[in-house]
Structure formats: structure tokens, C-alpha cells
């Protein structure tokens, strides 16, 4: 893929991420949550130059650090996301201020890796960034599915639910930094 196509793909995925950061979203039983990350990984792996041939050890180390940052960002984003169940059984999620902080730290660490690779003279293509982004999205989606399934499993039958205004229902499956009720946005 050309540099322009890579840039457009990264901008499109970044737009998707920003939308997911700031919108309340229903977590449904859709089994295709892994499709976007897999497509990103396939596109990244098709590109040549994932590892700089002239600086193999440094390139592999930087790539491993990029993947680690991607996984840490995905896990941090998922665990700082508020997840709750409605009385009808629908499960919703919304990122918190802590989720935004996780993203800012992740972007800062990635910028630091880019600066380090430039200082070492190691060429890092967009493949490493796309793979790390795929890892971020895949891990976040997997953790959110797991959290929503555990929430559905512990939720009583909709006919026997307590009112959602009880303190125990309000505290159920909250995320770090979660302190205010959120309204749903209908798409």
C-alpha cells in the first residue's frame, strides 16, 4: 500500500477510535467484534519493511515495545470504560476521563518510540503502528465482551430486577474514574 493509502487508513481508524472514546455504545451479542483489528493486522503484515534490515535488533526491540504499548493501551482503555446493564438486559459502555488519559499516555509513549527510532536511525514503517493499533482494538473489544458477558451472567432475569436507582445497581461494574451517570445516545 502507498504512503497516502496508509495515512488514510490510519486517519480512518483514528476517527473510529475517537468516536468510540466519546460515545455511549451498546455492546450487543455481535460476534464480529474482531473483524476491524484482523483487517488492520492483515494490511500491516502485507506491507514490506516491518523490521529494518539494517538494524534488526533495534527494530525488533522497538516493534516489541510498540506492541506492548498497544496492548497496555487496549487493556487500560477497556478497564477504564464504564459498563452497565439496563433493566431490559442491554449492556452499554462509555469511556471515562481515565480512558482519555490512557489514550494520551499511549500516544505520548508512541511518539517517544518514534523519536527514539529516529535517533537510532531505525526505519519504522506504518506496519508496526497498524499492528499495535490492531492489538489495542482487539484487546479492548475482547475485555469489553468478557466484562459484558459477566455482567449479563450476574444480572437477574428482567422480570425480577430491582429498580436501577438502588446503590448496589449503580455501583455494578463501574470503571476507574466513573462517578456520574451517563445518558445513552441512540445511533
Architecture overview:
The protein has helices at residues 3-22, 35-46, 56-79, 97-120, 126-154, 167-171; strands spanning 25-27, 81-85, 91-95. It is mostly helical and 187 residues long. It has one domain. The chain has a three-stranded antiparallel sheet. A hairpin with a 5-residue loop joins strand 2 and strand 3. The longest helix has 29 residues, at 126-154.
In terms of DSSP E residues, the strand content is 5-15%
For the secondary structure, the number of strands is 3
Q: Which sequence of SSEs, written as H and E, runs from N to C?
A: HEHHEEHHH
Helix content: 55-70%
- Biggest sheet statistics: 3 strands, antiparallel
Terminal CA distance reads 33 Å
Mass-distribution shape: elongated
Structural class: mainly alpha
User: How large is the count of helical segments?
Assistant: 6
Radius of gyration, in angstroms, nearest whole number? 19 Å
Uncertain runs: 157-171
Number of domains: 1
Read across the widest sheet, the strand sequence of neighbours is: 1-3-2
Mean of all residue-level pLDDT scores: 79
Amino acid at each position: 500500500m502507498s504512503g497516502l493509502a496508509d495515512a488514510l487508513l490510519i486517519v480512518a481508524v483514528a476517527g473510529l477510535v475517537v468516536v468510540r472514546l466519546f460515545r455511549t455504545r451498546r455492546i450487543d451479542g455481535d460476534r464480529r467484534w474482531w473483524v476491524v483489528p484482523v483487517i488492520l493486522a492483515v494490511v500491516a503484515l502485507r506491507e514490506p519493511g516491518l523490521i529494518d534490515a539494517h538494524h534488526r535488533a533495534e527494530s525488533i526491540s522497538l516493534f516489541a515495545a510498540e506492541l506492548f504499548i498497544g496492548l497496555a493501551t487496549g487493556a487500560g482503555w477497556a478497564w477504564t470504560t464504564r459498563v452497565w446493564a439496563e433493566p431490559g438486559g442491554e449492556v452499554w459502555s462509555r469511556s471515562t476521563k481515565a480512558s482519555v488519559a490512557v489514550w494520551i499516555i499511549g500516544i505520548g509513549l508512541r511518539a517517544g518510540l518514534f523519536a527514539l527510532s529516529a535517533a537510532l536511525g531505525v526505519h519504522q514503517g506504518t506496519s508496526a503502528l497498524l499492528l499495535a493499533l490492531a492489538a489495542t482494538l482487539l484487546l479492548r473489544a475482547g475485555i469489553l465482551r468478557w466484562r459484558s458477558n459477566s455482567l449479563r451472567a450476574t444480572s437477574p432475569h428482567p422480570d425480577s430486577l430491582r429498580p436501577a436507582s438502588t446503590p448496589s445497581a449503580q455501583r455494578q461494574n463501574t470503571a476507574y474514574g466513573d462517578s456520574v451517570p451517563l445518558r445513552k445516545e441512540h445511533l
